[in-house]
């Protein structure tokens, strides 16, 4: 009588079974979430937008014939050349400084804090900060404040004289009399081109009286809401322009007297008797005040978005490099200092070579991030600047949004091809680090 026995798993089979149990779920997720989408995207990129006509590599050929795609590739190249390098250098500087200051914890927290903010929220913050309106944008509020401090502000931008009243606006914006005046003359400046609301609350214009040693006059807004009055003549309801600078300029072009108008627009220039002069309202009275830089315009939008990225990721670079600095052999540093090397020589010849593996990992990781950058480029640029700031990931999203899934899939594969070499480089570095 024979009996059969079920085969029991040998000790040799146990590790394989355990490995299959442990890696099976992860492998399944990898296939479902990564392998299948990549394979399907490759297949879908070979068809047209409807998915019914096979076009082969037609989408890839057309991709590089579109100006929008070429602009996106160019912007990605700018990103790769600028953002990772600047982030890595700043991270290195911050990491070195962090070892030399007492309040290093607070410093580390301040620099790393932007990493705690989502890219979407950071984009909203930077778009608000760089608005052109100084009342909204923080950056332009500072710029305009500095400009106004050094150049002064205009009282009545856009003002101009009435025609045929004996005064003319010069090329530089100044308003001057056509003829010379002398002491005892009264010179009036009826101006238009000013919003009545800009002079609301000012005093009613008053006629100036003649003075023996002065040239007098009045500057007023020659306009009344609802109409009425006579052009060039001071009306009962017309308002004076206060705070305007008025100058008397002699025949040689020298300013011999200067003053400002009072609340009712009147002025008096002490010139002395027998002196002829032109009366001038300088252009500074009428030049529009600073409105700020159009940071979000097409010409500056890419540097602004790159700056936002650096603000976020410099903290990551700092922390990574700081961990590498902690592993540096300090006995070598002390030995170099003992041999007479200065701090720059120690940093360049000893610290940097020991940090090269960390620096390469940081740099390559940031390159991968900028190649697939999307959030900041999608959120920060306003509508008119989006084409100028376009990158491959945003172009891919645009194609999918326009239901051109063939072109969108081709762009996705193109983006994968760009990122793949850097990912393999990082994997190789990780393996080297583990083996060492």
Report the major sheet.
6 strands, antiparallel
Molecular shape: elongated
Which CATH-level-2 architecture of the largest domain?
Orthogonal Bundle
Distance between the termini: 61 Å
The CATH H-level homologous superfamily of the largest domain: MetI-like
Task: Please name the defining characteristics of this protein.
13 helices; alpha+beta; 6-stranded antiparallel beta sheet; about 425 residues; 10 strands; MetI-like fold; Immunoglobulin-like; 2 domains; 4-stranded mixed beta sheet
Write the SSE topology.
Elements: H1 13-44, H2 58-63, H3 67-98, H4 104-112, H5 119-129, H6 138-151, E1 160-161, E2 167-169, E3 175-177, E4 181-182, E5 189-192, E6 214-221, E7 245-249, E8 255-260, E9 266-270, E10 276-281, H7 301-326, H8 330-338, H9 343-371, H10 375-379, H11 386-389, H12 392-401, H13 405-435
Helix pairs in contact: 1-13, 3-7, 3-9, 3-12, 5-7, 7-9, 8-9, 9-13, 12-13
Structural overview:
Helix 1 (13-44) packs antiparallel against helix 13 (405-435), helix 3 packs across helix 12 and helix 5 (119-129) packs across helix 7 (301-326). A hairpin with a 5-residue loop joins strand 2 (167-169) and strand 3 (175-177). The chain has 2 domains: 42-143 and 294-435, MetI-like fold, CATH 1.10.3720.10; 160-285, Immunoglobulin-like (Sandwich). It is elongated and about 115 Å long. It has helices at residues 13-44, 58-63, 67-98, 104-112, 119-129, 138-151, 301-326, 330-338, 343-371, 375-379, 386-389, 392-401, 405-435, and strands at 160-161, 167-169, 175-177, 181-182, 189-192, 214-221, 245-249, 255-260, 266-270, 276-281. The strands form 2 sheets. Strands 2, 3, 4, 7, 8 and 10 form a 6-stranded antiparallel beta sheet that branches. A 4-stranded mixed beta sheet has the order 1-5-6-9, with no helix packed on it. The protein is an alpha+beta fold. The mean pLDDT is 85. The relative contact order is 0.14. The longest helix is centred in the N-terminal third of the chain and has 32 residues, at 13-44. It has 13 helices and 10 strands.
